[in-house]
Amino acid sequence: MKEKFKEYLMITIGMLFVVIAIQFFFIPNNITAGGVTGISVVICEYIKGLNVGLVMGVLNIFLFIIAFIFIGRDFGGKTIYAAMGISFINWAIEEFFTPMAVTNDLMLSTIAGSLFLGTGLGIVFTQDASTGGTDIIAKILNKFFHIEMGRGMQIVDIIVVIFSGITFGIEKAIYAAICVILTGIVIDKVISGYYTCHQVIIFTNKTKYIKEYIINDIDRGCTIFTGEGGYTGENKNIIYCVLERAQLMKVRKFLKENEPEAFVIVNDAHDVLGKGFEKIE
C-alpha cells in the first residue's frame, strides 16, 4: 500500500510539471509540444472558446477506447490516472483561473517549457505509467504497420508540428520542433538518471584485497573472472561489479590509494534489476 501511494504521488508530481509547461509556457505563446497537447492547442485556435484541458480529456477518452478495441488492456490504472489527471488539471486552471505567461520570449518559453514537460513525463515514465495520447497512437502504428514505438511517436509529433506551422506560422513551427527534440532529450536524461548505475570492470593483481573492500566496505557483490593478457600472456584476474554513483566514488578513491596500477573500465548501466537493485517485475 505504501509503495502504491509513493507511485501515485510521483505520478502526480510529474503531472504538475507537465501542466506548468502547458499552461505557463506553451499555451500563452501558441507553442505546440507534440502529441495530444499540441493537437489540443491547434484545435482551440480554430474553435474559439474551447478549453484545452477539456479537448485533451475528450481526445484521451477517444484514444483509450480505440486502444481497448484494437490493442487490448495494455493501459493500466496509472496511465489512465496520469492522462485524465493532466486533462482535468488543465481544464480546472483554464476554467477558474487566468494563467499568465512566465515569459513572452519564445526561445525562453520553448526551453523552459521543454524542461518542465520532459521532467514531468520522465517522472511519470519511471513509475511504469504514461500520459496516453501519443503513446496510444504509436502502439496502434506498431501493431498494424510494424512501425517502431519511438518512430511512431516521432511521426505523430511531426504531423503536429506541420499543423502548428499551418496554424501559427513557420516561426512557431520551428519552436515546436525544437520543443519536441528538447523534450525527448530531457525525458531520456530523467529516466537514465533515475535508474543509472555503473558497470565496473577492474583488471588487477590484488584481487582478494579489492574484492574484500567491495563486499565488506561497499556492501556490494562482485564476480571474479580469469583472463590472459593478449600482449604479455600473463594471467589476469578481472573483477566485475555494478555500483551506484556514491559507491563508485568510494571504489575509485580506494583504488587510487591502494592499487594505482589497476586498469578500470566504467560504463553506464540502465535498468539494473534484482540483487539489491530494482525489483524484477
From TrEMBL:
Domain of life the protein comes from: Bacteria
Keyword field: Cell membrane, Membrane, Transmembrane, Transmembrane helix
UniProt main location, coarse: membrane
Cell compartments where the protein resides: Cell membrane
Stretch forming the signal peptide: none
Membrane topology type: Multi-pass membrane protein
A GO term from the CC aspect: plasma membrane
Segments forming domain DUF2179: 220-274
Coiled-coil boundaries: none
Segments crossing the lipid bilayer: 7-26, 46-72, 79-100, 106-126, 147-168, 174-197
Record-given protein name: DUF2179 domain-containing protein
Native source organism of the sequence: Clostridium thermobutyricum
